[in-house]
Specification:
The chain is mostly beta strands. 3% of the residues lie in helices and 50% in strands. It has a single domain (2-115), classed as Jelly Rolls. It has one helix spanning 124-127; strands at 2-10, 13-23, 30-39, 48-53, 56-61, 67-73, 81-85, 106-114, 120-121. The two termini are 27 Å apart.
Length: 129
């Protein structure tokens, strides 16, 4: 998988920017598994995470930390999955806390692909769209 808007792993978690684009490998259909840990304490409290996968869209209200979900992706690897923070992102430098200029929104504990969902599968029918 390729990521745009993911800052990499550090001590078992990784930060996403305000927008994370996930492009699965072609020929490997299945599920992208995401476990959200928390929102950066630099931002106003929010529990909304917006997800787009082609024409499918979800808006998740994350009631607690470490919410996990699995998103289906095209078996031909066409397109990408996009996660959006409803509060955007802010860097520690912008908040006057350090020299770290990475825009941070949600921290993630899991971000991988599998043939079967690892977490609650997001299906179009459940969202009513």
């Amino acid at each position: 998988m390729r990521f745009d808007g993911f800052h990499g792993w550090e001590n078992g978690f990784g930060w996403m920017a305000s927008r994370l684009e996930i492009t699965p490998e072609s020929g490997r259909g299945g599920w992208v598994n995401v476990r959200v840990d928390s929102l950066a304490n630099l931002l106003p409290p929010s529990t909304r995470l917006l997800i787009e996968n082609g024409e499918m869209q979800w808006e998740l209200e994350l009631a607690e930390a470490q919410a996990g979900f699995s998103i289906p992706f095209d078996p031909l690897g066409r397109g990408s999955i996009v996660l959006w923070s409803s509060n955007g992102a802010l860097s520690p430098a912008e908040a006057g806390l350090s020299g770290d200029t990475r825009p941070l929104s949600f921290s993630l504990r899991n971000l991988d692909a599998s043939h079967r969902p690892r977490f609650l599968p997001l299906l179009q029918e459940e969202n009513g769209n």
